[in-house]
Write a structure and sequence with these properties.
The protein is mainly α. Helices cover about 75% and strands about 0% of the residues. Helix 2 runs antiparallel to helix 3. Keywords: Membrane, Transmembrane, Transmembrane helix.
């Protein structure tokens, strides 16, 4: 991995490696779960399954909070 880094730095001296890779990989799983919940949400609304709908809304709210703290607030301009 070092030779690739050296080639990139030689081409672009301002290059900075991603130091938050672990956090980015952590955020993938809540993102996948949220995407599944967003697929289920309209189905539960149309079928009016109240308990599963409530569970999906709660899961989405928790994931939105987690992603807001671990991803959105840390985005660079």
């Amino acid at each position: 991995m070092k030779p690739i880094h050296e080639l990139v730095v030689a081409e672009n001296s301002a290059f900075q490696p991603n130091k938050r890779f672990g956090l980015d990989m952590f955020n993938v799983m809540p993102g996948i779960i949220a995407k599944c919940c967003l697929t289920l949400l309209p189905m539960y609304i149309v079928l009016w399954l109240q308990i599963p709908l409530l569970i999906v809304i709660i899961i989405l709210a928790v994931i939105i909070f987690i992603l807001k703290k671990t991803w959105w607030n840390k985005l660079e301009d």
